[in-house]
Amino acid sequence: MTTKRALLVIDIQNDYFPGGRWELAGMDKAAANAARLIESARAAGDPVVHVRHEFQSADAPFFAPGSDGARIHPAVAPAEGETVVLKHYPNAFRETGLKDILDRDGITDLVICGAMSHMCVDAATRAAKDLGYACTVVHDACASRDLEFDGVRVPAAQAHAAFMGALGFAYATLATTDEFIAGA
């Protein structure tokens, strides 16, 4: 079977950056690495699919419809002709045309980066694997934030590590940006 790869760039949007409404730890570094992945994918002729989240309510905590915060960050701006998928749920496949877009282009392998590690990256990776795609998550091109559960604060780095560890166990191959580009 012939494989064909695409890069899936998830929710690298203004609200996640310093000064945004839902700042993530390490978002600038993750976006810089995602930009390198985009450049590499474009050079290889691999499709780049951008996913952009908007909540459906104007009083959303972030990514409010039509807001500047919901726009894709300039560091990873889509090039003319690149696909942008609008989603309203953590899973980029839910109620979007993403699967049809990938299948139309014969995509078998997904390279995934973006935000948030513990939410939309996790949801999309698990869904993609369940749909039969081979997945690679480029973990240093993803970002998270501090979480809290039952009075326990989980620092962003630990939340990110826990979710990457879980994805790496059964859902995806994990790589750094440098490792992925060197092996591409």
From TrEMBL:
Pfam family, one: Isochorismatase
Gene Ontology molecular function: hydrolase activity
InterPro entries according to UniProt: Isochorismatase-like_dom, Isochorismatase-like_hydrls, Isochorismatase-like_sf
Swiss-Prot/TrEMBL keywords: Hydrolase, Plasmid
Domain Isochorismatase-like, residue spans: 6-149
Superkingdom of origin: Bacteria
The name this protein goes by in its record: Cysteine hydrolase
Naturally occurring in which organism (per UniProt): Skermanella cutis
Higher taxonomy: Bacteria, Pseudomonadati, Pseudomonadota, Alphaproteobacteria, Rhodospirillales
